[in-house]
Design goal:
This protein has helices spanning 42-48, 66-69, 72-81, 96-107, 163-168, 176-180, 220-224, 241-247, 252-262, 280-289, and strands at 4-10, 24-29, 32-36, 56-60, 88-92, 115-119, 127-130, 134-140, 148-154, 159-161, 185-186, 192-193, 199-201, 207-211, 229-233, 267-270, 293-295, 301-303. By secondary structure, it is α/β, with parallel strands linked by helices. It folds into two domains: 4-156 and 203-303, Metallo-beta-lactamase, Chain A (4-Layer Sandwich); 159-194, no CATH class. The chain starts with a strand and ends with a strand.
Length: 304
């Protein structure tokens, strides 16, 4: 089974600190890197994580607040300097096209590659991207400006060959594709062999959901139900719940309630306010609601 790895490149919020970088993550699967948000300094974090710029398959921007997208001009310029040739898809909310167009006009006049910008409807949970490795769905969030979360779902084969049974019934190799499509097999003697005797069910796909920034928003629950890992912003602690409401952010406890109600397997919190010298209190409050909670930090790599 291939690695499905999440690298935390930055997990701080808007104001810069010496403790955290602005939000950015890299999700790796089957030799491809899917970049999620691109706060200032993301390309340096990519270097520190020993990831390759050439492996970046596509970029997913949650919203157009600077701590989530100010790293794009530098990153795109570096990719051009390195001679990228393949087209780069960039997904984001309304306004992302204008933002990328401005970057192209000012800094990428002689770019080595094309950029395809795809604006997503922030109001609906729908498929926004699909390739040979995974599907990506939008998650409507509730913030001060149009904001999207993303659900990454690995693609898995629904059926696998049961090789001993296939060999026993002498199924020709040319017929394997029909078995994997769910068809029965008829032997030369005319005996019909049911598909379930020749195949095994594939494993369930692994799923990762990214939800930042957002206030406590119960509609998220159905979108992320049962995921293997949920990243949910946890900007504030209980003592600043009114501040969280006023700024359309979440407390760590609210993030944990979402995780508990959605019956996710693991919760990862981040997007910490610069007020906090450490995330210990935020983590403790989250674990009171959902024990299987971890705290993000730069350099963390989680295997999903």
């Amino acid at each position: 089974m291939e690695n499905f790895d999440l690298h935390i490149l930055g997990c701080g919020s808007a104001l810069p600190t010496m403790r955290h970088n602005p939000t950015s993550q890299a999700l790796q699967l089957r030799g491809k890197t899917y970049l999620i948000d691109c706060g200032e300094g993301t390309q340096l974090s990519i270097r520190r994580a020993q990831l390759q710029f050439s492996k970046i398959h596509s970029i997913y921007i949650s919203h157009l607040h600077g701590d989530h997208c100010f790293g794009l001009p530098g990153l795109l310029s570096t990719m051009s300097l390195l001679g990228r040739a393949s087209t780069l898809p960039i997904y984001g909310p309304w306004g992302i096209k204008d933002y990328v167009q401005e970057i192209k006009q000012r800094f990428l006049a002689d770019s080595s590659f094309e950029i395809e910008v795809r604006e997503c409807d922030c109001r609906i949970h729908t498929l926004v991207h699909e390739d040979s490795s995974l599907r990506v769905f939008s998650i409507p969030l509730s913030h001060r400006i149009p904001t999207i979360g993303y659900l990454f779902e690995e693609k898995c084969a629904e059926l696998h060959l049961d090789k001993p049974s296939v060999d026993f019934y002498k199924v020709p190799i040319a017929y394997y594709q029909h078995l994997l499509a769910g068809e029965d097999y008829v032997t030369e003697e005319g005996e019909q062999i049911p598909n379930h005797r020749l195949t095994k069910k594939g494993r369930s796909p692994r799923r990762y959901a990214f939800c930042s920034d957002t206030k406590y928003h119960p509609p998220i629950i159905d979108c992320v139900r049962g995921v293997d890992l949920l990243y949910h912003e946890a900007t504030f602690g209980d003592e600043l719940s009114e501040r969280a409401e006023a700024t359309a952010h979440s407390t760590s406890r609210q993030a944990a309630v979402i995780a508990r109600e959605a019956e996710v397997k693991r919760l990862l919190i981040g997007h910490y306010s610069s007020r906090y010298e450490s995330y210990d209190t935020l983590l403790q409050q989250a674990r009171e609601e959902f024990p299987n909670t971890e705290a993000a930090f730069e350099g963390l790599c989680i295997k999903i």
